[in-house]
């Protein structure tokens, strides 16, 4: 019988196993990243540092005002406890369909 000695070297049979293991690990890393299991999620703030958000009276528009300054005419501070902080948060979505009237009451924005 003629046998090949492969001491210390991987055999042809072990190479595909290593390739499959490497592919499985790479796939797991990609899936963890795509499904949000990577431990990092981007959230965009409504305003930058040193600013606060204000609502356009009578519409769903908004702006950011520097801390310590008052809103311009036609804008008002959000009611306490109902201030959006991040894009898409509970209050940001709420103010897409609500606004303040001239008397400061919360009203629904007419569709259209």
Features:
single chain; alpha+beta; 112 residues; two-stranded antiparallel ribbon; 2 helices; elongated; 3-stranded antiparallel β-sheet
Proportion in β-strands: 15-25%
**Total strands:** 5
How many helices does DSSP assign?
2
pLDDT below 50 for ≥5 consecutive residues: which ranges?
A: none
Terminal residue distance: 88 Å
Output mean pLDDT. Answer: 82
Largest sheet: 3 strands, antiparallel
Q: What is the 3D form?
A: elongated
Proportion of residues in helical segments: 10-25%
Radius of gyration using CA atoms only:
29 Å
User: Could you spell the SSE succession in H and E letters?
Assistant: HEEEHEE
Cross-sheet strand order for the largest sheet: 2-1-3
SS-based class: alpha+beta
């Amino acid at each position: 019988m003629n046998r090949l000695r492969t001491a210390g070297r991987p055999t042809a049979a072990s190479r595909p196993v290593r390739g499959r293991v490497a592919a499985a690990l790479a796939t797991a890393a990609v899936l963890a990243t795509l499904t949000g299991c990577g431990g990092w999620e981007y959230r965009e703030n409504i305003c930058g540092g040193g600013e606060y958000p204000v609502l356009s009276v009578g519409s769903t528009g908004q702006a950011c005002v520097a801390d310590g300054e008052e809103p311009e005419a036609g804008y008002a501070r959000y009611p306490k406890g109902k201030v959006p902080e991040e894009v898409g948060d509970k209050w940001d979505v709420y103010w897409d369909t609500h606004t303040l009237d001239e008397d400061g009451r919360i009203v629904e924005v007419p569709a259209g």
